[in-house]
Write a structure and sequence with these properties.
Arc Repressor Mutant, subunit A; Alpha-Beta Plaits; 3 domains; transcription; 44% helix; 8 strands; globular
Length: 238
């Protein structure tokens, strides 16, 4: 797969740590997940996934607790999950997932981010067919053979197991996310460098230096939007 997930996460975490926007985004996502079902991760699968992701970004417990308490209480804010698809410089492909309480505002700001940074917003389905939904789990301090053995003993189906930046990365179908984590936790592994449900491009592209600069500006502009939760793309980082 070769997506260098640790580098991508570290780049994003470093950028977001300076603005604290990652905290606000996770707080909202936790609130929405808890509001949809029981505010208990053991009985709310969506909430459990968000909390596992948040753990890899070292999200403060106070923010988690505040979001869950808000969902338990009188919080009546309604948020809609929206997905936008578009094209960046040199035909690069981008998927934007958002949570919003103002659909018109989000559509306008996402469209503006694309058009101001060398891209254009596409219609639903224009890009997503070139991506696959995937669970990604990063396991530190283990060898490739050790991870494969754990998965085989637990009889868990995965798509691929690779070594990337001294971390073993496991790629699986989204519905295997919890099964993969449980297999590792039963083997005594409780900390993960990555724990994501994501969209992986079927084919990555490499941009010219100029196009890469413009593309980076597009991604930064999208990720800076208050309503945007996740941005996926098919550009290979050098």
């Amino acid at each position: 797969m070769g997506r260098k997930w640790n580098n991508i996460k570290e780049k994003k975490a470093s950028k977001d740590a300076n603005t604290s926007k990652i905290y606000a985004k996770f707080g909202l996502e936790i609130y929405v997940a808890a509001k949809k079902g029981e505010p208990d991760p053991e009985s709310n699968r969506a909430l459990k996934v968000v909390l596992e992701r948040a753990k890899t970004y070292n999200l403060p417990k106070a923010i988690i607790d505040r979001a869950i308490e808000k969902a338990k209480g009188s919080g009546d804010e309604n948020y809609v999950e929206l997905r936008y698809e578009g094209f960046g410089p040199s035909g690069s492909m981008v998927i934007v997932d958002s949570l919003t309480n103002n659909v018109n505002r989000t559509a306008s700001t996402v469209r503006s981010a694309f058009t101001k940074n060398g891209g254009n917003l596409g219609v639903s389905g224009s890009v997503a067919y070139m991506f696959d939904s995937s669970a990604v789990i990063g396991v530190p301090d283990k060898t490739l053979d050790e991870v494969i053995e754990i998965l085989l003993e637990a009889d868990v189906d995965v798509r691929d197991v690779t070594e990337e930046d001294e971390t073993i990365m496991v790629y699986a179908d989204p519905d295997q996310f919890h099964a993969v984590q449980e297999a590792f936790k039963n083997a005594g592994i409780t900390e993960f460098t990555v724990a994501e449900l994501t969209m992986l491009a079927q084919n990555d592209v490499t941009l010219s230096a100029d196009a890469q600069v413009q593309f980076d500006k597009l991604i930064d502009a999208l990720e800076d939007l208050e309503d945007v939760q996740q941005v996926y793309h098919n550009v290979e980082f050098e």
